[in-house]
């Protein structure tokens, strides 16, 4: 990916690199997590998605409740078995054992059912969300895409959706069953003996205190590690994406040193974070063992007084352990949930954007149509106009050339004509119809544009050429490539029309331009716009392509934007722009005779050359 110098894009990349990834490594209660901005509203919306999956949600809930029920029954049955052994009960022994086995097996099976259903619901929900997001993104106004970092949009499609998916299929069921397990365990323990329940709960309090004492340092160390990891990822990405420049300036060694420096810091902080986190487990084990001893000691005292049986002590030992596991899990899941909700928030923000307005009647044109700009004023930021009071009349079938300094607004004119943006003042007419009143789709169907930045898609040449007109036959394609002077190139490629090209591409810049011009020809438009479409092509080929354009577009309208004036000499009308205004217009001969800005530009380009 292109490394951007746009500060917003860089910031988005950095924050993406820092964004905690649940898939990365083992999750712990100390992982950093994001805070959603509007928790309540986002949560309500996520619940809305679940509401449409009632069957699955009901199934998962039933499986969780039943599994917990069977899980809780096992220690209770065990206590009965021990009482039989200890002679404190006279019920038959083996049926109790069989029941215990049955409950364990059923709990296991139901756990499996829960996981399968959760995975299903997770994938279904995410599939739906991903489809909604993609169809939204492809229908957003061009202005939205221009204003937002592409990296950030992409990370919403992938990272954020991934996080939500993990949460739905793993974290939510864990949360559910964690809460229910705790509630169930406490109820059963209370039913056996409230005194011993109090003792068991002190264990939990002790664990919670020791965890919270350690939490601060561990969280700080984890944060440092996350930040360094982000920085390291950024370095690696930068080196790979700008590899040519790095090698061309011989900066491999320096990049290596920088990488090593960050890498060393990461190693150091990794060791520290792991060590701190490592202390946690032994401490928690010790505390929980101490708790078990406490239960045994108090339980023995209660049993001696005849308040409980020995079996109950054994059951409590198991319940205490069952109890602390979900507490730990809940702490982990809580963080994941926050991260996922923050991700969902970002996804919803896009879903809430207004799509491009598709209204308006169909634009119908005769075989050729003139274009008229009437007093058009436009600025990407309405306060800073880049096109000012622009009026121009392009006759049907004519070729108009737009020339002028960098940043003078030529591409903006093309943007307005395709209604990527709408002017703040004035109107644009195509074939006599105000384009503000026709639908964007029907307007664009009449036009083909070859952009300043060549865009080819990964796929075969054939797929790329027939992109704009699906029904185009082989003859149409070959005709177009001959006109665009890239037939020789295609003949040489292995597989010819079926040769695969990549979007990054091994074709030269000029070859890519010729292919995109051929694509414009295949579209067979009423209006053709070429924005610096031949800037990387040699002058002779450029002239040939320009002649072809005149031939193909003989009774259609074309707008050609070019810096090289030699190629647009034959245009019907040449328009010289400066700072969003037209400063001169006329034919080549007229403008040369006038001796104004065009003459100046022309003489400059040909200074020292015989023309
Ligand atoms: N999407 C955008 N958002 C904000 N400003 C923009 C956007 N696109 C272009 N501009 C600004 O509008 C002005 C006109 O840009 P435009 O692309 O029309 O120039 P141009 O004449 O095509 O230049 P070039 O010859 O370099 O292609 C420039 O100052 C540019 O910075
Ligand atoms: Mg431009």
Summarize the structure.
With 611 residues, the protein is α/β, with parallel strands linked by helices. It is 62% helix and 10% strand. It has helices at 7-18, 39-51, 54-85, 93-137, 142-147, 150-192, 194-241, 243-248, 252-304, 310-351, 410-417, 440-445, 461-465, 474-483, 487-492, 509-522, 539-552, 588-594, 597-605; strands at 371-378, 387-394, 399-404, 425-430, 433-434, 447-450, 459-460, 500-501, 527-531, 557-561, 573-578, 581-586.
Number of structural units classed as domains: 3
The coarse overall form would be elongated
Largest sheet: 6 strands, mixed
- Can you tell me the CATH architecture of the largest domain? 3-Layer(aba) Sandwich
List keywords for this structure.
single chain, 611 residues, alpha/beta, ABC transporter transmembrane region fold, Rossmann fold, 4-stranded antiparallel beta sheet, 19 helices, 10% strand, disordered N terminus, binds adenosine-5'-triphosphate, binds magnesium ion
């Amino acid at each position: 990916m292109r490394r951007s110098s746009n500060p917003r894009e860089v910031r988005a990349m950095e924050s993406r690199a820092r964004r905690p990834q649940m898939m990365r490594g083992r999750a712990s209660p100390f992982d950093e997590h994001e805070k959603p901005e509007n928790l309540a509203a986002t949560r309500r919306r996520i619940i809305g998605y679940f509401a449409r999956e009632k069957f699955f949600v009901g199934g998962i809930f039933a499986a969780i409740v039943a599994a917990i029920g069977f899980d809780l029954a096992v220690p209770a049955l065990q206590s009965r078995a021990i009482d039989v052994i200890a002679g404190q009960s006279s019920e038959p022994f083996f049926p109790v054992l069989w029941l215990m086995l049955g409950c364990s097996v059923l709990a296991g099976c139901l756990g499996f059912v829960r996981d399968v259903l959760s995975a299903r619901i997770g994938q279904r929900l995410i599939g739906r969300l991903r489809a909604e997001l993609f169809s939204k993104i492809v229908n957003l106004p061009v202005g939205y895409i221009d204003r937002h970092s592409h990296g950030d949009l992409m990370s919403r499609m992938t990272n954020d959706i991934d996080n939500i998916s993990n949460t739905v299929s793993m974290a939510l069921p864990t949360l559910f069953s964690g809460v229910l397990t705790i509630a169930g365990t406490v109820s059963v323990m209370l039913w056996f003996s409230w005194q011993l329940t109090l003792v068991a709960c002190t264990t939990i309090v002790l664990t919670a205190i020791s965890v919270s004492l350690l939490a601060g340092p561990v969280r700080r160390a984890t944060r440092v590690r996350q930040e360094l990891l982000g920085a390291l990822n950024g370095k690696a990405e930068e080196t790979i994406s700008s590899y040519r420049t790095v090698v061309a300036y011989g900066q491999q060694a320096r990049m290596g040193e920088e990488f090593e420096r960050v890498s060393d810091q990461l190693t150091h902080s990794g060791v520290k974070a792991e060590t701190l986190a490592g202390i946690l487990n032994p401490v928690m084990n010790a505390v929980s063992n101490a708790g078990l001893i406490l239960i045994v000691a108090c339980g023995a005292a209660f049993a001696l007084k005849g308040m409980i049986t020995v079996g109950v002590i054994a059951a409590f030992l198991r319940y205490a352990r069952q109890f602390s596991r979900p507490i730990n899990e809940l702490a982990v899941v809580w963080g994941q949930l926050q991260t996922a909700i923050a991700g969902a928030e970002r996804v919803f923000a896009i879903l809430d954007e207004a799509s491009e307005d598709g209204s308006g009647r169909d634009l119908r044109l005769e075989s050729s149509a003139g274009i008229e700009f009437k007093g058009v004023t436009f600025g990407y930021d309405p306060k800073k106009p880049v096109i000012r009071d622009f009026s121009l009349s392009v006759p049907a079938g004519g070729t108009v050339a737009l020339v002028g300094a960098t940043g003078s607004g030529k591409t903006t004119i093309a943007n307005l004509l395709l209604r990527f943006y709408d002017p703040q003042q004035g109107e644009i007419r195509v074939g006599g119809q105000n384009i503000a009143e026709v639908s964007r789709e029907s307007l664009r169907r009449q036009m083909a544009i070859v952009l300043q930045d060549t865009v080819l898609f990964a796929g075969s040449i054939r797929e790329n050429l027939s992109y704009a007109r699906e029904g185009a036959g082989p003859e149409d394609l070959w005709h177009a490539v001959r006109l665009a002077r890239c037939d020789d190139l295609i003949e040489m490629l292995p597989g010819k029309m079926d040769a695969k090209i990549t979007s990054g591409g091994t074709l030269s810049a000029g070859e890519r331009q010729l292919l995109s011009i051929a694509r414009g020809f295949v579209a067979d438009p009423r209006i053709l716009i070429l924005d610096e479409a031949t800037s990387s092509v040699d002058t002779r080929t450029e002239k040939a392509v320009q002649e072809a354009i005149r031939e193909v577009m003989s009774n259609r309208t074309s707008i050609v934007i070019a810096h090289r004036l030699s190629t647009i000499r034959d245009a019907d009308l040449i328009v010289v722009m400066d700072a969003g205004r037209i400063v001169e217009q006329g034919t080549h001969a007229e403008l040369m005779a006038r001796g104004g800005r065009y003459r100046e530009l022309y003489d400059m380009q040909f200074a020292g050359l015989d023309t």
